[in-house]
Amino acid sequence: MRIQYLWRQRTLFQLMTHRRASTYNKRPFWRRPWPAALLGCAVAGTAIIAFSKPSPIDANYPASVARHIHEALYRQTGSSLQDFQRAWKAYQSAIEQAEKENMDMESASIQGIRLQMANLQESSGGYQLAWKLFWDIFKRTESLKDFTEQRVIIASKIIELSEPLGLQMEAAKAADFIIQSLLRNEINDEPENKSRLFEQTATLYFQLGKPSYAVPLYYQALELTMNNPTCHGLILMNNLATSLLAQTDHIDKKYHEKLLQQSRDWSQKAVDSYHFAYPKDRTLECHSGCAAAFFTLGQVAERNGNVEMAIKNYRNAESLRAHDPYNDGSMMAHIALDRLDKNAFLRPNDD
């Protein structure tokens, strides 16, 4: 009897243990004591490590300067005029405090504060002051080592702001620096970004009336996009064709025929590339680039005295208004047709 009693107790104990284990396993992970405790320790340890590690600002600036920079960055996230004013004042206080701390006012750390001030002015619409700040930083950092890529970014900003301000002539020095850095392979960046820099400098030289400078730069920009063709390639091809056409206003007439042929070839390549693309892959940039290429073909035909071919190309450019009503090529083609086509008033108005 004693053995039977002990056996029953043992069976009952196993049954209770099994039920508890089953209930324990059915609980969610976060309600189990040991895993929940381990998870809590892991989260707490990660938080301690993250918050105990100093930020780059605290590591590169004295505490009195870093405090103002942190305040400026916080205020800069706001959208009100008061936030902008407080951020600007905090940056100014950081510069003043850095001078009191006997920091090198020409060092990269101080230029970083000035760069933030320039970006703040640009984001708020103060383009004139932003341009002056970017230009001042560009000149101050001329002798800094290992600052080439940052200077290229600053030079690009100078060129970007120069067009709305009418300061393209002053921005030519920044463009020269970008080209030298690109040709010396001093910029470790993606081909698409290098292509954008070549295009930006080429556009600046074209606006300055130097199409002979723009041609090789547009060609370099196009070459860098060949491995990953996009609709922007059509824009680059037409810009190259337009620059070749513009050179006829600056060189002897004996070279005109060759330049006109090269311009026609590049414009035709842009048109062919447009037609090779699947219709579903043609973006607004594709339509705009093809319209501009047709307009350039019309200009070349007009320069060669072939008015009928010019009208045909202008009409092709204008027809792309159905896809992009406000693209430059179609609108300029419409003006050219009004000038050349005697029956222009008979054409239906698609507007």
UniProtKB/TrEMBL annotation:
TPR repeat residue intervals: 195-228, 291-324
PROSITE patterns xref list: TPR
An annotated GO BP: protein quality control for misfolded or incompletely synthesized proteins
UniProt cross-references to InterPro entries, sorted A to Z: Mrg3-like, TPR-like_helical_dom_sf, TPR_rpt
Signal peptide limits: none
Keyword Hydrolase applies: yes
Name of the protein this chain belongs to: Mitochondrial inner membrane i-AAA protease complex TPR repeat subunit Mgr3
Keyword match Secreted: no
Encoding gene, per UniProt annotation: mgr3
GO MF term list: misfolded protein binding; peptidase activity
Gene Ontology annotations for the cellular component aspect, listed alphabetically: i-AAA complex
PANTHER family: MITOCHONDRIAL INNER MEMBRANE I-AAA PROTEASE SUPERCOMPLEX SUBUNIT MGR3-RELATED
Coiled coil segments of this chain: 81-108
Keywords: Coiled coil, Hydrolase, Protease, TPR repeat
